[in-house]
């Protein structure tokens, strides 16, 4: 699962804004899966792409989620850890 797909899942299930905010989720993701490649560093740290996706996605329940090149992915145990 890509990070943007996890963001969409958390947003559709009302985890963001009710349980945590987007900045906290971004910090959790960086702690669980630290960026390894230069593309992942750019995606998570330099551009704050996750925050941009959150702010730009106005109709998040109807849009599809397309991964961006260099976007980090979550393994199953990382996905479970972030849900916890």
Note down, in words, how this protein is organized:
By secondary structure, this protein is mainly alpha-helical. It has one domain (3-83). Helix content is 55%, strand content 0%. It has 5 helices and no strands. The radius of gyration is 12 Å and the shape is globular. The two termini are 16 Å apart. The mean pLDDT is 79.
- The run of helices and strands is HHHHH
Overall structural domain count: 1
The first-to-last residue Cα distance is 16 Å
**Multimeric organization:** single chain
| Alpha-beta classification | mainly alpha
Roughly what fraction of the amino acids lie in strands?
Answer: under 5%
Largest sheet features:
none
What key attributes describe this structure?
55% helix, mainly alpha, 5 helices, globular, single chain, 84 residues
SSE map:
Layout lengths: L2 H10 L9 H11 L5 H9 L2 H8 L19 H8 L1
Compact overview of the structure:
The protein has one domain. The chain contains 5 helices and no strands. It has helices at about 5-10, 20-30, 40-45, 50-55, 75-84.
């Amino acid at each position: 699962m890509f990070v943007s797909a996890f963001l969409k899942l958390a947003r559709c299930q009302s985890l963001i804004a009710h349980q945590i905010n987007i900045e906290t989720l971004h910090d959790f993701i960086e702690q669980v899966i630290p960026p390894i490649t230069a593309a992942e560093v750019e995606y998570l740290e330099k551009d704050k792409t996750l925050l941009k996706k959150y702010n730009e996605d106005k109709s998040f329940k109807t849009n599809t989620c397309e991964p961006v090149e260099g976007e980090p992915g979550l393994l199953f145990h990382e996905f479970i850890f972030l849900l916890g």
